[in-house]
Amino acid sequence: MDSQFFPEAQIMKRLALDNPWWDGSGILREYEEMKPRLFLRPFLSLLESLPRGRSIIMLGARRVGKTVLIHHSISRLIENGIDPRKIIFLTVDGALLNLNGLHLEEMLELAAKASKTELSRETEGLYVFFDEIQYLENWESELKVLSDTYKGIRFVASGSAAAALKFKSMESGAGRFTHFCLPPLLFCEYLRMAGAEGLVVPTRVNWFGKLTDGFDTVNVEGLNSHFIKYLNYGGFPEAVVGGALTENPHRYVKEDMIDKVLLRDLPGLYGISDTRDLYRLFVNVVFRSGEEFSYEDLSRASGLRKEVLKKYLTYLESAFLIKIFHKVDESARKFQRVSTFKIYVTNPSVFAAVFSPVTPDDEAFNHLVEAAIYTQLSQSDKEDLYYANWRSGRRCGEVDFVRLDILGQKPERALEVKWSDKYSRNPGELKSLLAFMENNSLERAVVTSVTEARLARMDRISLQFVPTALYAYAAGIESVKTSD
Questions:
Q1: Vertex 160, ends 127 and 227: CA angle to 5°?
Q2: What angle in degrees, to the nearest 10, is found between the helix axes of 365-377 and 220-233?
Q3: Which residues lie below 8 Å from residue 9, measured CB to CB, with a gap of 6+?
Q4: DSSP-derived secondary structure letter, 334
Q5: Contact (Cβ atoms closer than 8 angstroms) between residue 446 and residue 426
Q6: CB contact at 8 A, 63 and 238
Q7: 332-340 long-range Cβ contacts below 8 angstroms, 24+ apart
Q8: From first to last of its 484 residues, what are the pLDDT tens digits of the chain?
Q9: Beta strands in 295-435 (DSSP E)
């Protein structure tokens, strides 16, 4: 093999260091000591059931733990009896592989040689993980060829430039690639990593008048305290484990995560020459996260033409930095022409990094609470989520979250997010929610609170009040289950 920079023997040594389990050492201690994310089980389930000739593309923002998840998966595979020498981990952005200009198949051949594993078209039972694959040009075409050539090998590719991964894999890998999205840390995962999971206990709860399996808290004030920390610092595993984010959120998130995406990844992928415009748009969106936007409004605020603005928003959404959230009207009908929409940051703690940490007294707090709830809810592929907003004559109103039945497109659930206990005592003040329920024949809805948990009945309508932090925990648990 013709090498441009480094001899093959040096590359082989590097591969052995990156795959310490080949000699029985197991994964590196830094990964072993981290608690696995709850998405480990659904990912392993997907990996084990992967049809021949298909590969997994792991999507996710920077710093959400994709590399750690891969190493925890490797550890579980070994525990389950897979020969360690049949598990290969390749860091595509590593200097020895990247600077030598190696293609994916060449990397695979070298790794197989280094692990003393036979490689042929008939090879079975081999697991190959390509990390940071976006640094290889035309990776999607090369991975497609590998999937076709080595049908008995399970390939996984991950990377942080999610825009490139998402678009290119969908264009070039039809029928070959299966996507797995690793979201920011959910609140239930945060509590687990912070050693505070004991604040929530499984129990039988009175849910709309019926006893069912659910969760309760032994200390709602303590749970709320952790929820506020989660809003400000808790979206990244390393921050919870090491405390680096709470010590310097500006450096950890803004400089190490956001700036790399906005100033390097997206400009490099899409030829953006003036990153100031992209950055200014992003900061504006973060500051107003959870508000309703229009293209005209954003165009005036950012100074960007609407065509450029739409393109930049698409890039930011594909990079898992923001989520555009669409609306329905008071009859739960979708709008044919999209004129206004909400935008949420996918990770609420980005706000604290760009601006400053928030408290319940801050104006931005309620919107970030909504963003956090959206993060928990939006991980389920079965969730067809919208917000309701209508203005008709003197009638106007808004409901934070509406779930439509996927087949019938009729409202199944309505959720109003409030960081307040006053509505549990005065449910009649929730006029928009009540009007939406009456207009759509919805008999029940959920309203979050600070500490109150109770059922309020009004004529034919029932409102279940539940503490916001407890609802966030339960919604996250449900999202993990639906990913399994």
A1: 105
A2: 90
A3: none
A4: B
A5: no
A6: yes
A7: 332/386, 332/388, 332/402, 332/404, 332/409, 332/410, 332/411, 332/436, 332/440, 334/386, 334/409, 339/294, 339/295, 340/292, 340/293, 340/294, 340/389
A8: 444 566 788 888 889 999 999 999 999 998 998 899 999 999 999 999 999 999 999 998 888 899 999 999 999 999 999 999 999 999 887 656 555 678 899 989 999 999 999 999 999 999 999 998 887 888 899 999 999 999 999 999 998 776 677 777 777 766 789 999 999 999 999 999 999 999 999 999 989 989 999 999 999 999 999 999 999 988 888 777 765 555 665 666 777 778 888 888 888 878 888 889 999 999 999 999 999 999 999 999 888 999 999 999 999 988 889 999 999 999 999 887 888 999 999 998 899 889 989 999 999 999 999 999 999 998 764 558 999 999 877 789 999 999 998 777 889 999 999 999 999 999 999 999 999 999 999 999 999 999 999 999 998 899 999 999 999 999 999 999 887 7
A9: 322-325, 327-328, 340-345, 385-392, 395-404, 411-416
CA angle 46, 344, 37 (to 5 degrees): 30
3 state SS of 402: strand
For residue 36, the 8-state DSSP code is P
Residue type, 243: G
- At 294, the amino acid letter reads S
Q: Tell me the two tokens of residue 404.
A: 């439509």
Cβ neighbours for 69, distance < 8 A, ≥ 6 positions apart: 36, 37, 39, 40, 43, 58, 182
- What is the spatial distance between Cα 193 and Cα 144, in angstroms, rounded to a whole number? 37
For residue 372, give the nearest of 224, 266, 245 by alpha carbon. 224
Task: Give the DSSP per-residue string, 187-216.
Answer: HHHHHHHTT-GGGEEEEEEEETTEEEEEEE
CA dihedral 302, 306, 307, 310 (to 10 degrees): 70
